[in-house]
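S2.1 Query sequence (Extradiol ring-cleavage dioxygenase LigAB LigA subunit domain-containing protein)
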Amino acid sequence: MTAPVGVHALIEHLVRHPEERGLVKTDPDALFARFEVAEDARPVLRAGSRDELSAMGVHGNYVIKWLIWSGRPTLPFFAMSHFFDRRL
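Output structure tokens follow.
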């Protein structure tokens, strides 16, 4: 599956222009409009999980970048005790 139009271009732009990454949190609609991201892709970009972004066709490297810039977790978290308890 190919990512919706504009999504990869938007993320590539933010890779090259880190000063604009704050817009991901403060004004994502401005970025979506500038890169002509399809309306149906916007909710997934705003709140979708790693798996939902991937299913939409966003490259894995870009998924992680987008989630970091959005302030959302990139991986599921678990208590450290989970790791240590399994070592016994």
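The radius of gyration is 15 Å. The mean pLDDT is 88.
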